[in-house]
Amino acid sequence: MFVQQVIQGLAIGSVYGLMALGYALMWQAWAVLDFARGEAAMIGAFSILVFHSFFKIPFVAAFPLAIATSAILGYVIQWLAYRPLIGGIPINRLIATLGMGILLRNLARVIYGADPYPFPTVFGDKPVSIGNVLVVPQNVWITAIGFALVVLLRLFLTRTYTGKAMRAAAQDRETAALMGIRVKQSMALTFVLATCLGAIAGLLVAPVYFVRADMGLSIGLRGFASAVLGGLDSVTGAMIGGLLLGVTENLAAGYISSGYQAAIAFSIMILILIFRPQGIMGRRL
Amino acid sequence: MGKVGKLVAAALVLVFIASFAAGCSSPKKDPIKIGIVAPLSGGAAMVGDTQVKGVALAIKQINAAGGIHGREVIYIAEDDEQIPAKSVSAVNKLVYNDKVDAVIGTVNSSATLANMEVTRKAGVPQITPISSNPKITKLGNEWIFRLQASDEHQARAIVDYAVNELKIKKPAVIYQSDDYGTGGKDVIVDRLKELNVNPVAVEAFAPDAQDMTGQLLKIKNAGADGLFMWTMYAQAALIARQARQIGLDVQLMGGGGLTNPKLVELAGDAAYGLLNTQTFFPDKEGASPEAAAFIDAYEKEYGMLPDSNAAMSYDSMMILAKAMEAAGPSLDKKKVRDAIAATRDYRGVTGVITIDEYGDANRDILIIRVKVGGGYEVVWPKR
Amino acid sequence: MLELKNVHTFYGVVEALRGISLTVNEGEIVTLIGANGAGKTTTLKTITSSVRAASGEIHFDGKRIDRLPEDEIVKMGISLVPEGRRVFPRMTVLENLEMGAYVRRFDRAGILADLKKMYALFPRLEERKNQRAETLSGGEQQMLAIARALMSRPRLLMLDEPSMGLAPLVVKGIFDIIKEINEAGTTVLLVEQNARMALKAANRGYVIRTGEIVKEGDAKSLTEDPAIRAAYLGEKVYGKGEAQ
Ligand SMILES: Nc1ncnc2c1ncn2[C@@H]1O[C@H](COP(=O)(O)OP(=O)(O)O)[C@@H](O)[C@H]1O
Ligand SMILES: [Mg+2]
Q1: CATH code, residues B32-149+286-364
Q2: What tens digit of pLDDT does each residue of B301-339 get?
Q3: Contacts for A61-68 with beta carbons within 8 Å, 24 or more apart?
């Protein structure tokens, strides 16, 4: 049962990890804890729902369309609500993100209603048994895509000029501008990237947890916790934080007390943070 | 503000006062105000939505038939996000600001338990369509009524069916960790004990949980041969699917919160065969004339089939209207309350309803099964 | 090459520059000296468009540049080594240098060649090219900041107090490098509080006080000016010796 619990935890954990990447990116580039992050997952999930389920576009085509839609929406959102607050008081930015989250959730509810929508499984949800362990293809794909995206993101941030410029702008806005980096553009790009990662997380879980207007709330909170756990300034840390939270939640349910599943997982998180306030992979503060 | 600005403001104020005075002097009667408190956002927003729809449809029909004592009926809906504290504020607003004549709501049992204190203190009649926690009517609060069969009645019915008819020996229980889920779980566990059956696992999950595989794996390992779940349909759909994913293939059973066409839509074939108690389901063929007419009207109004919550909310409003007619044009709240309490053999769309000494609706409980391919069939009582 | 004409710059209502005019000719080392808060950094930031001049004009190579965005200024060949070095702390030395070359990022071969040049000029940087910049010593960070600025192939290199916080021996090394860079053909505008070192290295100099140029001339005449000797070259330099 232990192995089974861990496998289940890894699948949901890599989704948390993808969300956590968004938090880490936003923290680094915008110096803000973006509480509208979870809504990126909701945007991604509804985008794929609209293209695939409503317009009957095949998944392979609907997937890039959904990502593109999320990217465009992300750009518009940062332009409307985030960009005007660059250089403002941090608490204002924080409140702007909270407000944006509420706005997006309610907007989605007005447009799509409060009921969850089913989304067909793409990778298969019939379990396959390997030895004693049941493996759901969908979960394997979710985990694999999660890992692949972390690797890709790392490569992007460390190997391309655009990625490096994003990091430079995140570390020192003024000096980055001095290098000729268009800082606002770079920040917008970071926002779009974070939104796309969230959207991918959202559309990966759509077949598993359905598509609903407020789906961003719990997935966003888990993503935030993962990011803090892993270290807000580390991409790898964000993913590790996600996996750790996913596995802990599952083990807590299986071995300690299911009623306090979340409480136990979050307590463990707090414990780790007491000993490593900067997070598992974070830089010393 | 400049001089012009001041002038404009003064003019606006005058216009406002004038229109207000005009409104007062017209002989039109004030409308009767019904306060609705429901989760309109958050995790249970879809249930709150059908609650409002059910009441709104009833009000539309009442007004079309001339209102109550010739007065128009309107409703004011407040969101409580199924958070008890917010629910209390919402009912406070309805009772003291909007001065409503009665309150209908809410969905979540914890929230109802909290907000019914407000109507009790103010002496305003309240009907909760579907909050089913047994405690609600057992606290000596005479202003609260409930149309749904309480969880106590429902849970006993499904347990009896599982043990007596299905011969289930090693049941497990999974429930959402709030008043609703815990209340149901307690009745199930107690009733099982009375029938000399020991549950092999009793597992909880947070009301907003998405991933219950940890709990389900534990249940599977305990060797369960049946699973009672006390939750709402969206979460039940998740449980059904996740149970299948981890190879937990047992009879799934639950309460009225599971009946919803969305259950099958969300869970697909994983939901086939699921059993649950019910007091209403949108099946036009098997329905009473009252129910059939309601299903038709609802579908025409909203383009979707009603769920049991919509039906309960509709009946709540209808019973309230009947009580208001009976109480006389003064709409004295105490008289309205007494008239609700006196409801006997009312033929609603959710069946024949008699309000008992506690304010609970006494009614038959059905056990229905999700058919292969979707839809429901009644399996108990046997026809 | 660079000409400021009556430039006024404000921070909100504070007038930091009150009509600055100065000229830097091709091939020169020009120094701008003044006490803390005199407006030296603001002058450089106005040139790079980090802050906008409220009035006045700035010309570079005969073109007006005071309305251009920052990246255009870099592309035209002006590069700044900012006050306090401002290396990107969590990027490697190599990545910092690459950021210096951001405006010409598509010139792969040119960048590789320039990296070699920088490593020749600052061998320490090559040894540490894969280390995070925050792990470097102050002197090394200053070298990195200079090298980074050179990576955009500027024709005018501006340095804002490169000696700040460094040990005298290290300062001497930095100034030698600046002269070397200048001899290789790069024009230099050097801002300093350390007037003695600056005037020794420079051809000409300007003295700025509360946003105004109060004196200008060749380095030698400024060094010999008694008022300047008292104000900026006495023992109590570093901002305190300003004789108002
Ligand atoms: N960002 C800013 N906001 C407001 N005032 C500033 C800002 N930066 C500098 N100043 C003021 O402008 C004046 C010139 O500052 P600065 O150019 O940094 O001087 P220096 O570089 O010669 O020490 C000082 O009075 C300083 O207080
Ligand atoms: Mg300065």
Answers
A1: 3.40.50.2300
A2: 999 989 888 999 999 999 999 999 999 999 999 999 999
A3: A63/A203, A66/A199, A66/A203, A67/A196, A67/A199, A67/A200
